[in-house]
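If I may wish for something, please sit down with the protein I am sending here and say whether tokens and residues agree:
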Amino acid sequence: MTVEEIRSYKQIRTPDYSLLANLVSRAKGPDRTMAQFAEVTGIGASTLSRLVNHNIKKPLALDVIIKIYECRADEEDTYLLDSLARANGFYPADYAQRVKDHDSMAAKRNFHMNREHQMKNALIAGVAAAGCNISVIDRPLLRTENLPPIYPSRLGDFILKLSADTMTGKTRNWSFTTFTQLVEETEPRFDAKYYARRAFQSCSELLLLDAWKPEALQDYKISFAFIDKAILGEFWNAVSIARVHTEMSLILIDPVSYRVLDEIWIPGDYNPMTNISVFRVPAPVEEEMYEDTDDFYEEDPE
């Protein structure tokens, strides 16, 4: 991948801000301060600081991507350019054209998969920022040898396995299910109640297992993550009277910054891992303070 080749790339996806922050830190390297990196790249120090702290809301301009790459700490890291471009939502022109040619349903599915990916990143980063030692299990399966087929075979979209010394001295499994729908993006006939009902139906087998065979969920915490506050509210109206036997919570994620805004527990007879949400731990911020600049934004087309 060369600089000239990447100039033909097209912006087709929302940036993965978590991955982008990691790649910028990788380009800076461990031996330079952010101010030193800013000086060699010609990019504002405040811009770079906001990048690594997930504090941007638009894709980077292509020239900024190139500057970061050309001033990378490890000159042999030739894969960094393509990684930066893709994390920023840039893809080769032929691939971009194929995506554009897909029908609207495929494009919508792709959009929601990208949103689900960013929600997952936000949840993992939030737990890790609290100092929890975790490992990620994708597409988690529930052992169902002794359970009737009406019970779920999968337990959420992914699980974080918390090491024994993290909370209570024993290994815990934290299951997450993400709901990517925003009401404002849909037709008027599909309101928050409609999507909350669909979310509830998708979780009905899990809630049934909690009601009839809660021992199967021993040492599990289960969270349902939403990106739409209204849908979360309607879902809460349905589950808040359930009196569950397994620790369960609802999580709200900001649809722009992909930061966790709140976590609320569903009432029930269980012992929570903690009474305080781990997501309330502040994100790390660099000590240096800089003036804000907008030199990293891609110009909006007129």
